[in-house]
Structure formats: structure tokens, C-alpha cells
Design a protein that fits this description.
Length: 430
């Protein structure tokens, strides 16, 4: 559902004035207007463009939800839950997504919303913020993609008819900072930043396989070279061949977290840390980011990556707890790691003398392990069905394909209905 002119529904608490817009007549005859001093308008309601408008609009909607026993999630203030009626409501500015166990409950809250606000009812959920949702109720599956958005950005950057690529990055090319001879590329810096930004939204929405290459090219946005632009176009070519790809969630499937880190970049020796969390056989949260400090060993690099994964694990557990998904609660607390030294560092306080420079992360991870909020599992890299290597390195095609399957990414063009068994989570795409 969409709230019409959402910001106009709330009244301002502050005294705000604005200049009279051109074309608006001032009270009085024309002679009086000629000598009247400059006048202004006092705003009684929030309008678009005011910095106060989002806050006042949210307060108005929050007050309405509270009156119908909706509880706001403390982990995500855009999530509201009515535990008595088991209704879940997700808010983004003026867009609402409703979920309930019965159609009658959906109709009930829709009626209340229509009574309070001018609403546009968009019907069953098929798209939201550029994400396309394809549910299959008989098989209890859900597929997400950003096909339309990807086609749009390909057209904007004149890459719609390019030759598709099987990989988003070349394993033999290592990007570095620009040389002075490439400074002429600075004239197209805005185009480069626009391209990287559009790729970043696709990566954040449904494409964890883009995390590492997009994070890599974004490091050179201030002074891109032709080599960097070629790397960006390589990602566009990969999207052209995988526009329908996205996570495929099943009623059954593995869940849990995976974390990894590489051993320092060639430029500044800072490690790249990454993690992925899976639920019902597909990724729900992922990240690839250069660490803020230089690790003195691979163990430290892995340990600092584990710190970020633990923080995400706690947040996901809190969200699942608010949603009442207790059966998945423990899955988010199980993090797989392929470095026994980092595991020992997190569990054994005797190693504290070696990690004084990462004191706070040490205590943070150690505290939550002691409380049982997070559990660590060792899996050898070669034995893991999924590792986080895809978030820290450019992989050769066989390993890259394996990691895509491990993340639950499939192409929508592959028929999900044919030969797909929801009970085992196995289908033709495997």
C-alpha cells in the first residue's frame, strides 16, 4: 500500500515560515499589495522539502499504529508487529507492506488505514523498492530479483546490448590506484561514481555475488582510471547475462553464518573481511569491506572479520525474535569460520596479551560467546558447502559458480516449477 502525500498528514510542532510561492495571490487589492511589506507563509503542516517532514510524518504514522496495538521493533524502527492478531507491517517512508495469516486480517488493517489516510492499494506484493518478489505458495518458495532495475541501469550506461560475461571480475587483473598518466579520466569521475552507485544498490538488494567486485571498484571513485572503468563495465557485462539471478528461499534449507578474511591487499596491506548469513537455503545478509586497521597476522584478520559477523548475528537474532521465528533463532547464532587461531582467540582469555590493540572487539566477541548468544563452528575450507571467500577474493569460475549455488542464487529464467521438490530443496538448477 502507498500513502498519498504522506508528509502532508502530519502537523508541524515547530514554527516554520516560507516565502510566498510565485503565482499565489496575497490578500487585499492590487493597490494595497503594491505598498504591502514582504509577507511570508506560516506552515501548519509538513511539506516535502522540509527537514522536519520525515520525522513528523513518522511520528504521525507511529501514533496510529500504536493505537491498534502494534509494537515497534527495537531492532528496526520500520517494523511494526501486532502480536495479538499476528500482523506484520513494514514501513518505508510512504510505502507499506502488510503480512498476516488470513485475508480477513489483511482486510481489517487495510480498512483502518483507509479510514485514517488517503491510501493507494497496490494489491498482492510483487515489487517493493526495486525488488521483484515471486512467491510460489504450493511449493512454499520465494524468489527475489531486480531484473527491471538491472535492465534500467544497463540502458542508462549503454550496456544493454553488450556481450555478457560469466564472471564479474578478471582473476588475473589486480586494481590499484591511478597513475598520473590517467588523470584525464577525472573528467568522467561523475559518470564513474553514478555507475558504481547503481551497481551498489543491486548488490545490496539481491546480489551478494557482486559484493567484492563492487566494493573493490568503489575504492577508486575519487580518481578513477580507464582500467577501473573497464572493471566497472565487466560487472555490467556480468549483470547482462545474469539479470534474472537472485536468492531462492525454500521451506527447508540450511541456515547460519559464514565469515572469512583475506591476508592484506597489495596496496595498504589491510585485509578484506566478509560474511554471509543464510536462511532457508539462501542469503539474507552479506557484507564485504576493507578493514580499518592492518592485521598483524591472518588470525587477527579473521578475528576482526568475525567481530563484524557477530554484530550482524545479534541483530538478525533480534529481528527473528521480534517476528516470532524461534525455530530460526539459533541458526543465526551459529557462525562457521575456517581459522582455528581466530576461534581460540575468541574463546581463550589467555591470548589477550597478543591482542591489546584490538581490545574492545576482543571483549565484545568473548562476552557474547560466554553468554551463548553466538557459537563458533570450524569447517575446513575444502569441506564447506559455502564459504565467505566470494566476499574477499576474485575467484576462478568453478569456485565462483559453487559459491553462487551455496548462497542460494538462481536465475528466474530457470523453471522453478519443473522438477523442483520443496521438501528436499532440490531442483534442476542444482
Amino acid at each position: 500500500m502507498d500513502v498519498k502525500t504522506a508528509f502532508l498528514n502530519s502537523e508541524l510542532e515547530e514554527r516554520v515560515y516560507m516565502a510566498i510561492p510565485k503565482g499565489v495571490s496575497v490578500p487585499g487589492n492590487s493597490d494595497q499589495q503594491q505598498y504591502r511589506p514582504q509577507m511570508v507563509c506560516r506552515l501548519l503542516k509538513s511539506i516535502y522539502g522540509l527537514k522536519e517532514s520525515p520525522r513528523t510524518s513518522y511520528g504521525r504514522i507511529y501514533s496510529f499504529f500504536s493505537s491498534y496495538n502494534f509494537i515497534r521493533s527495537e531492532s528496526d524502527h520500520s517494523l511494526f508487529i501486532n502480536y495479538q492478531k499476528r500482523i506484520i507491517l513494514l514501513l518505508y517512508v510512504d510505502d507499506l507492506v502488510l503480512a498476516a495469516p488470513t485475508t480477513d486480517l489483511i482486510n481489517w488493517i487495510r480498512e483502518k488505514l483507509h479510514q485514517e489516510f488517503a491510501m493507494t492499494d497496490l494489491g498482492p506484493l510483487h515489487s517493493f523498492l526495486g525488488l521483484e518478489i515471486y512467491p510460489n505458495h504450493p511449493l512454499s518458495t520465494l524468489h527475489l530479483s531486480q531484473t527491471k532495475y538491472i535492465s534500467k541501469i544497463l540502458a542508462e550506461h549503454r550496456m544493454l546490448s553488450c556481450n555478457p560475461s560469466h564472471m564479474p571480475a578478471d582473476v588475473h587483473i589486480h586494481l590499484t590506484k591511478s597513475n598520473p598518466e590517467f588523470e584525464a579520466m577525472a573528467a568522467d569521475k561523475q559518470v564513474y561514481q553514478l555507475a558504481v552507485g547503481s551497481l551498489m544498490y543491486a548488490m545490496l538488494g539481491t546480489r551478494p555475488d557482486l559484493s567484492y567486485p563492487v566494493a573493490k571498484v568503489s575504492q577508486y571513485s575519487t580518481n578513477p582510471s580507464p582500467t577501473h572503468w573497464t572493471a566497472v563495465k565487466r560487472i555490467f557485462k556480468y549483470l547482462a547475462g545474469t539479470a534474472h539471478r537472485g536468492p531462492y528461499y525454500r521451506s527447508t534449507g540450511m541456515g547460519g553464518g559464514y565469515t572469512d578474511a583475506d591476508w592484506g591487499s597489495r596496496e595498504d596491506r589491510k585485509s578484506i573481511g566478509g560474511y554471509a548469513f543464510l536462511l532457508n537455503g539462501a542469503a539474507i545478509s552479506w557484507n564485504s569491506k576493507k578493514q580499518a586497521t592492518v592485521a598483524l597476522s591472518s588470525t587477527e584478520g579473521e578475528y576482526m572479520a568475525l567481530t563484524q559477523a557477530v554484530k550482524e548475528s545479534l541483530w538478525l537474532q533480534a529481528i527473528l525474535y521480534d517476528l516470532g521465528a524461534q525455530k530460526h533463532f539459533k541458526e543465526m547464532g551459529n557462525i562457521a569460520i575456517d581459522n582455528q587461531g581466530a576461534m581460540a582467540l575468541a574463546r581463550n582469555p589467555e591470548f589477550h596479551a597478543r591482542t591489546k590493540h584490538i581490545d574492545i572487539p576482543y571483549y565484545f566477541v568473548r562476552e557474547h560467546i560466554d553468554k551463548g548468544d553466538v557459537g563458533l563452528t570450524y569447517c575446513h575450507t575444502s569441506e564447506m558447502t559455502l564459504t565467505a571467500d566470494i566476499f574477499t577474493n576474485v575467484l576462478p569460475q568453478p569456485a565462483f559458480t559453487k559459491h553462487n549455488l551455496g548462497l542460494g542464487l538462481i536465475d528466474l529464467s530457470v523453471s522453478i516449477l519443473e522438477g523442483d521438490d520443496a521438501s528436499t530443496g532440490e531442483g534442476k538448477y542444482c
